[in-house]
Structures are given as structure tokens and as C-alpha cells.
Predict the structure.
Amino acid sequence: MNKRIIFFTAEDARYGFNLAGFEQHVCAGEELEPLLQQFVQKPEYGLFVIDERLVTESIDNRLRELERGLNLVFVIMPPPMKTEAKREDYAVRLLRKAIGYHMQLNI
């Protein structure tokens, strides 16, 4: 029997897995355990992927218990990386243009 994958993420990752065709539930840390309880009892789910920002020490211990007692796999995934696009300073652009050579200036 094939098992389904289900994702539990924080609010800022709301659309990613749904757009990829996976089942995804958005919740806050305190909502995770009751939400998990709804799904661990259902035999069609086998892999639970959880955003690490939602996992507290008590939830981590609970996941270990569930893994031992049931035929389930829990994966804790790192949160999405937010990278700020660095805006190039006007003075740096001007210097680069005047020099005619690409150089990295850390000001």
C-alpha cells in the first residue's frame, strides 16, 4: 500500500508544497501537536515533513514515541532561506563604471 506525504509548515511557507501538488497544513507551533494527532491515526499517511520552527522539545519527544510505536516516518526540515537582495550602492556603481573593472567593494 502506498503511503501519502504530508507537510506541516509555518505561515511564511504557505504556498510552496501545495503548488507542487503535496498536502500541506499551515500552523503555529502550539497548533502542531493536535493537528498531528488527526493525521497519525489515518493509515494512508506514512511520511510527515515538519518545519523545524514548529518543533519544540516536547513535540520532538512525542515524534520519537510515535515513530517507535507506529509505522511512520517524521522528517524535520529546515526553514526556507530568506536572502535579502543587496542593493548596489550608487557610489560603488559609479566607481566601477569609472574604473572600468569589476571589483567587490565592501563599504
Summary: The first strand starts at residue 4 and ends at 9. Strands lie at 4-9, 23-26, 45-51, 73-77. The chain has four helices and four strands. The CA atoms of residues 23 and 35 lie 13 Å apart.
